[in-house]
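Researcher: Next sequence.
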Amino acid sequence: MKTLRITALTALLLTLATGAAPLLTITDKNDGQAIKISVGQPFEVRLPSNPTTGYQWTAGALHTGPLTETHAPTFQPSTSGLLGAGGTQVFAYRGVATGTAHLSFGYARSWEHTAPIKHIAITIVVLSGAHT
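Model: Next structure:
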């Protein structure tokens, strides 16, 4: 617990010193939620994935608006070392203007022309100032 407090304090101090907004992490547990961020706030959507099964997450189209994608989606393999173990797909965004954006992600095999077996939808509300 002491380490967590020190880490959180260090992150806060770095944020205040650099003026950068802390990185927010969104997961599949946030499905259906509306999440408020500030202009300039970076965030990642991190979704459990196992590409060895052929399934992968794809993001719905991001139209111009309050968000921008900061880099191409990435995959972080499991640290378990087990053959065929899953990992996490990471989608990175930043709030660039006030407004509301709807993000959607589908978990499917690219060669199958069927509905995704999982679907995640998140609303991001970008506000002009800092908030909690």
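Model: The CA atoms of residues 81 and 87 lie 11 Å apart. The chain has a mean pLDDT of 85.
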